[in-house]
Amino acid sequence: MNWDQVEGKWDQLKGKVKEKWGELTDDDLTQIKGKRDQLAGKIQERYGYTKERAEDELKAWESNNRW
pTM score, two decimals? Predict the structure, then answer.
């Protein structure tokens, strides 16, 4: 997945992110602005995951969502 493309289409992709990680707020998604590291950090924070688990979930989501 090309995160430059994700950043460019972030407003369109926020819904897909929210489907997967519903505990992320609209404010979280607005602040993230498509930045991968910030998304991983928010997933870790909201779900109480380790950094490794947040990264694993994000990688799985990336491989299931090709743009």
Answer: 0.88
Q: Is pLDDT at 67 greater than 70 in this prediction?
A: no
Q: Can you tell me which residue has the tokens 């090309």? A: 2
CATH 1.10.1470.10 fits 3-64, yes or no: yes
**Can you tell me the distance from the alpha carbon of 8 to that of 22, in angstroms, rounded to the nearest whole number?**
22
Task: Report how far residue 67's alpha carbon sits from residue 49's, in angstroms, rounded to the nearest whole number.
Answer: 27
User: Alpha-carbon Rg of the chain, whole angstroms?
Assistant: 11
Question: 51-64 vs 36-47: helix axis angle to the nearest 10?
Answer: 120
Q: Where are the domains of the chain?
A: 3-64
Question: First-to-last CA distance in the chain?
Answer: 7
